[in-house]
């Protein structure tokens, strides 16, 4: 049993990771944004001195993609400065650091899954700030820093695309959904399992430091995902109609292709993530209960 510290523990992924680690019998402490400001070096060092973790998982982040376009400095503090502060504290304490990152650090113009060593080429402010966080961790902790990129994340513990589509199915006759962005819907509980397994493999000295891709397997578009949601609801998928990104202009440009490769899991002695449809089918009852039990919070 090892000691774990999870920052950003009040968020969707943080909640799932705390539950996963507790179920696995790990000694884990979760600190929410209110409990720990990761941009404050004194507070971070005090937290590590108090809890003495062997592994720190940073789930704290600025995740408002569009808002980052007009508030990049604030987003950079959370997504770039915070990870550097954590990395420096982990370097001094000897703890491993797992930094959660995003597909938005990549250009999004590929035609086949991005390998873990693809060059950083973010399209928007959010991506630039997350890329800064990646560099901070990998430069500060070349032997004990891990970056786990995820994408299209959903779960029962927070607002997300799938919960929104469940809500809209009940109030809209038809839905027009973007069909020119490809990615990998990823269940936050599956990502939590990947993070827990990676941390344990790293503690055993089996997982090399560096970048991993924490997305479910396969690929689809937002249109294809919504049709699958309708199918799981017992609704007619033909009510979902394809459209283009030009119909939904947003402040931050989105990558057209966010499919990530999973080769490095084998290097860590771990199985690659399962296919997205299998994960969604297992997650769906909790998503349905969460959404129909209360309004979606949105993201």
TrEMBL record:
Short name of one Pfam family: RmlD_sub_bind
Top EC category: oxidoreductase
BP terms from Gene Ontology: dTDP-rhamnose biosynthetic process
Record-level Gene Ontology MF annotations: dTDP-4-dehydrorhamnose reductase activity
GO cellular component, as recorded: cytosol
Keywords, comma-separated and alphabetical: NADP, Oxidoreductase
Chain ranges of the RmlD-like substrate binding domain: 4-284
Pathway it works in: Carbohydrate biosynthesis; dTDP-L-rhamnose biosynthesis
The keyword Cell division appears for this protein: no
Oxidoreductase in keyword set: yes
EC code(s) of this entry: 1.1.1.133
Function as written in the Swiss-Prot or TrEMBL entry: Catalyzes the reduction of dTDP-6-deoxy-L-lyxo-4-hexulose to yield dTDP-L-rhamnose.
Family (UniProt): Belongs to the dTDP-4-dehydrorhamnose reductase family.
Name of the protein: dTDP-4-dehydrorhamnose reductase
Organism of origin: Streptomyces liangshanensis
